[in-house]
Amino acid sequence: QVQLVESGGGLVQAGGSLRLSCAASGSIFSRAVMGWYRQAPGKQRELVAVITSSSYTNYADSVKGRFTISRDNAKNTVYLQMNSLKPEDTGVYYCNLQFVGVSWGQGTQVTVSS
Questions:
Q1: Alpha-carbon distance 52 to 30, whole Å?
Q2: Which of 39, 55, 81, 107 supports an S-S bond with 45, CB 3.0-4.6 Å?
Q3: What does the DSSP assignment read for 46-90?
Q4: CA 41, 96, 39 angle in degrees (round to 5)?
């Protein structure tokens, strides 16, 4: 079972930036599709960004041009750089690993104040 540990969340003012990290255990990271999802209060979990093993990326329309997903296979870590944050970006951000099965991290809270 792969373990995923997110970090980097916090409270930031609108227009600010945060960088989330997700460290994965095990040896499959470099072959896995990695994603970031978020869940706002009272809403369903939604995809924010995804990066494949060959570093192809895709983003939700709401974050295009503001967020950047990247990965460092040597460190078994995926990142989400979030710039120009808006109050509607507030939520719990979850890391996701897909390789045969699916693993989730415990989530990290991001709060953007107006």
A1: 9
A2: 39
A3: EEEEEE-TT--EEE-TTTTTTEEEEEETTTTEEEEEE-S--GGG-
A4: 5
Q: Note whether 47 and 108 are within 8 A (CB).
A: no
Cα–Cα distance measured from residue 98 to residue 52, given in angstroms and rounded to the nearest whole number = 9
CA distance 109 to 39: 10
* CA–CA distance, 36 with 77 (Å, rounded to integer): 12
Tens-place pLDDT, residues 32-75:
999 999 999 999 999 999 999 999 999 999 999 999 999 999 99
Could you give the dihedral angle defined by the CA atoms of residues 50, 38, 10 and 17, in that order, rounded to the nearest 10 degrees? 50
In the block, residue with structure tokens 């095990």: 26
Residue 28 three-state SS: coil
